[in-house]
Design brief:
247 residues; alpha+beta; 60s Ribosomal Protein L30, Chain: A; seven-stranded mixed β-sheet; 26% helix; globular
């Protein structure tokens, strides 16, 4: 299930062409997360990320995760078109080979004051370290089962915004995060940051589906945003990163 991306000094969980399900630094390396103080349009964000990574003495292949913000949720076809555009830069950087993409990603849509075009919120890359502490980034996941079929077919409690419908969405997504972390040999006890994305009140599911699982050991950052595809309602991501910066 885990594959190595030696050019970037990290391993990853293969998923779809536009992103991996997660990335973890190899021994002797750590992941650094860099958040922009303001949203930066996609092309500018890639350029700034390249500058930061290269000034740190690292190759562009060290780029291992990113967090994006889009103007509004996409249709399935619109999402595919955006992803085909997004991976072009990763191909130029020697990361995407046309089939497999090792870079983990979250891409959500702020409900209030959204960007006018797809933009960067943060990115992560690997760098050498003497520390033995592991680090990883798990990609954003919503309440859609992986595999073939349309989002309508794969979405848990499709268009169900009842309290129980939302609870099932949160439960599924929590389990998805756990499965991805377990692939690397980690769990909630290892996380340093957990983020949730929804415009719905999921407080009634918080205790049983998150707190009791240990998911909130470092608290929870809730972004008032929608997942990137129409009719998805709840998304999460998580990470263990010892070094973070804001630029």
């Amino acid at each position: 299930m885990i594959r190595e991306f030696s050019a970037g000094n990290y391993r990853f969980i293969p998923s779809v062409f536009q992103y991996s399900a997660g990335a973890a630094a190899d021994d002797g390396y750590e992941i650094e997360r860099v958040r922009f103080d303001r949203l930066v349009p996609l092309a500018e964000g890639f350029a700034l990320a390249a500058k930061f990574i290269q000034e740190a003495g690292r190759p562009l292949t060290a780029f291992c995760a990113c967090e994006l913000r889009s103007p509004a949720a996409f249709s399935e076809e619109g999402f595919r078109a955006f992803n085909l555009h997004y991976v072009k830069t990763l191909a130029e950087w020697g990361i995407f080979d046309g089939t497999t993409n090792p870079v983990a990603r979250s891409n959500v849509c702020p409900e209030i004051d959204p960007p006018s075009e797809p933009s960067f919120y943060a990115f992560s890359f690997t760098r050498p370290t003497r520390s033995k502490a592991p680090s990883f980034v798990i990609a954003g996941g919503a309440e859609a089962r992986e595999g073939g079929g349309t989002y309508v077919e794969r979405t848990v409690r499709y268009r169900d915004l009842s309290p129980e419908g939302l609870r099932d969405k949160v439960r599924f997504t929590t389990a998805q995060m756990e499965t991805r972390m377990a692939a690397f040999g980690f769990g909630w006890k290892d996380t340093t940051g957990v983020q949730a994305y929804s415009v719905h009140d999921f407080h009634h599911a918080l205790v049983d589906e998150l707190v009791r699982h240990g998911a909130l050991r470092s608290g929870l950052t809730w972004h008032f945003a929608r997942p990137p595809v129409v009719d998805l309602e709840y998304e999460m991501d998580c990470r263990r990163v010892m070094r973070e910066a804001v630029i």
